[in-house]
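Q: I have two molecules that I believe assemble together. Could you output structure tokens for the complex as a whole instead of separate predictions?
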Amino acid sequence: MHSDSPVPNYDAAFGALADPTRRAILARLATGEATVSELTAPFDISQPAISRHLKVLEQAGLITRRVDGARRPCRLAGGTLEELEAWLDGLRRNLAANYDRLDAVLAAEIETPSTPKPRSNPKE
Amino acid sequence: MPKPLSFNLVDETQLVITRDFDAPPALVWRAHMEPALVTRWQNGGGDGWSITQCDIDARVGGSYRMDHQGPDGTGFSITGTFLEFDPPNRVLQEEIMLLPDPTPPNIVETLFMAKGDGTHMIMTMTLPDAETRKAMMDTGMLDGMELSYQLLDGLEVA
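A: Yes, here they are, computed for all two components at once.
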């Protein structure tokens, strides 16, 4: 889980996630498996259009489809989304840590404003 | 209690970060512009990373450079130019990271807006295209992962 593991290819996944309909499809699938027609119902989009979105999501590794008779239900493909999330989370955490430190700097400055000061530690 | 950071991918090429601070815009601005203050918070958390050089020519057309060095001696630099400057509320800058190869330019608009006694910051990064955004986040992530995992070792924050 360190950065020595190869960075998965997120290009396709981010491309897939850039579209609001596809994000909505993923949100729907987060509640459970669904068929194309079930996924089409809430959207004002044709079934072939939904199918194209599903193909993009599938190729990005975000969903998987299985054969169930004539149906091909879709479900979230846990791994990619989780990796994506972990990846974004790391970035977010890093930024958050920076800004948490900024809070401390701001608080210290409000307490005792720094005039141009020598660099030795000012803590008393 | 750390304040929440929002971090959102917008459209194909943007990344928007928002954060509130318990300090007025004038002070938050200084903390972004004065090397003595900047290096106190953009320092990787004392986890072995340090800022070995920080120069900021805080004016329109001025440039800046910050060299980050990791515990193993490797590092990266953040460089840029201020395109528009409206202290203490808005700055537009073009940022390029040296990894050491230069990354495509990242246009960063930062707004520091007064909110009560504090500041609401909205930072919008705009990359040339979706691929570049991705690539930037990849590199940011490699450094970020490194840093954040090291930070996590020393932190117990939910």
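A: One point stands out. The first strand of chain A starts at residue 63 and ends at 65.
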